[in-house]
């Protein structure tokens, strides 16, 4: 168990397409410890989601968890696919553990249907809404080498934390 160093924007690994996980490796001690280390790293850095490329491992693995009324349960996504996008869009502030101190508004579908293997290698199929749906899309973008700044329609909302608190605080930032 241990904290993993986080790759920051500019590190080419964040721009690579991640490889699928070989399913016969999921139950190995090494892989299960990697999942635990990803959760520990996410929580230590006050994130609500973390994708494996952010810890310099170019594999299709995501961990997520967010407490509170608008939160979502502990989730592990392995080799995930979004099989349906709902018609409604939602605009949220996004940040990223790989992009220190910056937030920006991103518009994404507010409902998705996801298929992914869980931590035990079992295929799950479910719908996610709101922040949960947005976070899944943000994290799955990491598996495609994409960052939230690539998804911003209006770069004028790109905001450093200090200015965010002064000018935009009405809407809480989501640090994904
Ligand atoms: Zn991110």
Coarse shape: globular
Top-tier CATH class:
Alpha Beta
CATH 2nd-level architecture: Alpha-Beta Complex
Instruction: Give the CATH H-level superfamily.
Output: Peptide deformylase
Largest sheet: 5 strands, antiparallel
Derived from helix and strand composition plus strand pairing, the structural class reads alpha+beta
Q: Tell how many strands the DSSP assignment holds.
A: 9
Q: Could you state the order of secondary-structure elements as H and E?
A: HEEEEEEEHHEHE
How many individual helices? 4
Low-confidence stretches: none
Quaternary organization: single chain
How much of the residues is beta strand, in percent? 25-35%
Fraction in helix? 10-25%
What's the N-to-C terminus distance?
A: 22 Å
Radius of gyration, in Å, reads: 16 Å
Mean pLDDT: 95
Could you explain how this protein is built, in words?
The protein is of the alpha+beta class. The chain has a single domain (12-168), classed as Peptide Deformylase (Alpha-Beta Complex), CATH 3.90.45.10. It contains four helices and nine strands; from the N terminus they run H-E-E-E-E-E-E-E-H-H-E-H-E. The protein has helices spanning 29-44, 130-143, 148-151, 161-167, and strands spanning 49-51, 61-66, 72-85, 89-96, 99-109, 111-117, 123-129, 159-160, 174-175. The strands form two sheets. It has a five-stranded antiparallel β-sheet with strand order 1-2-3-6-7. Strands 8-5-4-9 form a four-stranded mixed β-sheet. Strand 2 and strand 3 (72-85) form a beta hairpin. The longest helix has 16 residues, at 29-44. The radius of gyration is 16 Å and the shape is globular. The mean pLDDT is 95. It binds zinc ion. Zinc ion binds at residues 96-98, 138, 142, 176.
